[in-house]
Amino acid sequence: MYLAGEAWSPNQWITRQFLVLRMPAPIRLRELIRTIRTARTQAEEREMIQKECAAIRSSFREEDNTYRCRNVAKLLYMHMLGYPAHFGQLECLKLIASQKFTDKRIGYLGAMLLLDERQDVHLLMTNCIKNDLNHSTQYVQGLALCTLGCMGSSEMCRDLAGEVEKLLKTSNSYLRKKAALCAVHVIRKVPELMEMFLPATKNLLNEKNHGVLHTSVVLLTEMCERSPDMLAHFRKLVPQLVRILKNLIMSGYSPEHDVSGISDPFLQVRILRLLRILGRNDDDSSEAMNDILAQVATNTETSKNVGNAILYETVLTIMDIKSESGLRVLAINILGRFLLNNDKNIRYVALTSLLKTVQTDHNAVQRHRSTIVDCLKDLDVSIKRRAMELSFALVNGNNIRGMMKELLYFLDSCEPEFKADCASGIFLAAEKYAPSKRWHIDTIMRVLTTAGSYVRDDAVPNLIQLITNSVEMHAYTVQRLYKAILGDYSQQPLVQVAAWCIGEYGDLLVSGQCEEEEPIQVTEDEVLDILESVLISNMSTSVTRGYALTAIMKLSTRFTCTVNRIKKVVSIYGSSIDVELQQRAVEYNALFKKYDHMRSALLERMPVMEKVTTNGPTEIVQTNGETDPTPLETKPPPSGPQPTSQANDLLDLLGGNDITPVIPTAPTSKPASAGGELLDLLGDINLTGAPAAAPAPASVPQISQPPFLLDGLSSQPLFNDIATGIPSITAYSKNGLKIEFTFERSNTNPSVTVITIQASNSTELDMTDFVFQAAVPKTFQLQLLSPSSSIVPAFNTGTITQVIKVLNPQKQQLRMRIKLTYNHKGSAMQDLAEVNNFPPQSWQ
What we know:
Elements: H1 10-22, H2 29-37, H3 42-61, H4 68-80, H5 89-97, H6 101-114, H7 126-133, H8 138-151, H9 154-168, H10 173-189, H11 198-201, H12 210-226, H13 228-234, H14 238-250, E1 258-259, E2 262-263, H15 265-279, H16 283-299, H17 305-320, H18 325-338, H19 344-357, H20 362-366, H21 369-374, H22 381-394, H23 400-413, H24 416-433, H25 437-451, H26 459-469, H27 474-484, H28 492-511, H29 524-536, H30 542-558, H31 563-572, H32 579-593, H33 596-602, E3 620-623, E4 626-629, H34 641-653, H35 674-682, E5 729-734, E6 737-745, E7 752-761, E8 768-775, E9 781-784, E10 800-807, E11 816-824, E12 827-835
Antiparallel strand pairs: 1-2, 3-4, 5-6, 6-7, 7-10, 8-11, 9-10, 11-12
Helix pairs in contact: 3-4, 4-6, 5-6, 6-8, 7-8, 7-9, 8-10, 9-10, 10-12, 12-13, 12-15, 14-15, 14-16, 15-17, 16-17, 16-18, 17-18, 17-19, 18-19, 19-22, 23-24, 23-25, 24-25, 26-28, 27-28, 28-29, 28-30, 29-30, 30-31, 30-32, 31-32, 33-35
């Protein structure tokens, strides 16, 4: 054992040299590679690597300078195979400090592979790199520049930026191109050093060497992307860049830079990218480069992939700058030619680029519509998806029929992962550009028949609304849907729509009166057979069975000969294990037994539905999966003790503890019919507390505007001035939103309290889509008028006001439940609160 620092005797020295001479020389890198490749299994390879790593470690411990370079080279090969090689980091630093070029080369390569800025070891090589940047040999300087440009940290870049800037000004083109790339890395790590390199960039574009030109353009691009000031400064170089690009196009054959017959395509692509950055949002620069872009687009050979790469960059530049309209058409035509290329990558790139430009150059892209539609038949799924998205973007009122025909054919034959997006796109396009209601209905029914299981959730209510609003198409639609589901219940959305339509328009189906196509002869029993088959089918979901049971119940008022059969079907499902189905059946049984005189009015045909923006006088309310329009109207209330008793019973049946009927305008002296009673009672059923009412039948007079209690019947002032003494209250204060109530009493009817809400927002961002809803116990009656706005301004700079009118004939203490929904900071917010602190003056 020999300790460091001890004086060795001659015998000890001779013994050590003998041991060293006896140690075999490590195998060469080529032999290691050949040995590793002979391994038949992963375990055998690991064994070889571990054995060689052990030998390398032993050599490192012996401080063997003779074979350090060879050992580090083998270690780097193992690193590239994925094995750990961190124990060679310090050996790389020793090789870098060596004076031999071969050692430095392996040392710098090892530093680039094994070191990064997360490890403090890399800071130890800063001084070595600085010395090598000032070395007399250009190849050593080049090694140092490559290493700094590859893995230099921000600290190293700050320390060595001056040396890089000095080499950027040298006359040696070999060093200038490497210094330019190193400067790019320095700017990325330390952007504030950008101005240091500005003087050196002035003469870079005058260089004849293509390597220097290429790296100079990369450096200018990086500076322009990172600094608006640099962008404005370098815009004056546009004519020089145009001249360089023109020389590349017009120059003859140069074997040094030629690639497939094109002169230095890499430099051309880089210049085009820089021109795109310089010409963006600048009229003068764009004007200066229009001609050269046209020359590149027309003179570049397209038979090779090299030319296609240049053309693609040219197209991107034309689309990004303020180019002429003719030049943009030329660019889109180039993309159209790309669509005919056999290379799938080129076709995909063309479709992606056309998708980005279709909004700004719609007519030019439309010329290639047939080629785009042909791409829907491509075997490549990526191309197929891009073609589908672009096809939907091309749909307009002029080509809707032809495009829908192609897209429906695509929907029929495409893979399942495309069906949902394709069906949604067809729905949106048909809704926007449908030439007629019959075409619209036929198209959506075709989608439901082809891909019904893949459509989005709102497809069913949207189609139901469309059918309801197309009054003249009811007989045609119900006949088509009836034939569509005969014996096939696999497409559940289609079955749901068909069940709804049969329930609504079953009388039209059995009457055989259809003007649009040849009518079919169907009996009442056949219709019920279909609906009962849906109820018992294993393919039917719980929602579909609910549609079918409701349809059967509706048919009890449309059919005359099968009412007893309907009663039996409904009673059977009163004991269903499906809670939803059981609840419906129990309610329908109660209508048959207790409220049979009201059944015809309750199950009458749905009125025309209208979609109106939120907070307006009309809203779409979802009830049991069906869409019901609720324009705010008032109806005469029923009179007499018997109708009142029936009303309470029916409200209890439907669970209407918080249901608030609209306040009537005036009492009537004559009892209304059963249908009128029902409409009066259910006119404002809305479990969310929003005001709503169903339209009255023709026998009940309707009021076009939503008047309140005794409004317009008296010339007296509506509000009592004495009520100004009622104190206001804060009903809600949370998350920056504050709701305050102020009160007034009606001068015409002391039982009416008018509450004005004021919503304010103390946060720094507006609250949008604000909706206020309220509900009161059924001993009260409530009317909620439209708000002044749907946006609550930030910083309390404004408020939303909304009026609530409450009728309290029994002078009971007022209680209210409120629901608030709004969007804030990109998130949808919702909250519930109860207000029980109303001042006595507001209700006594």
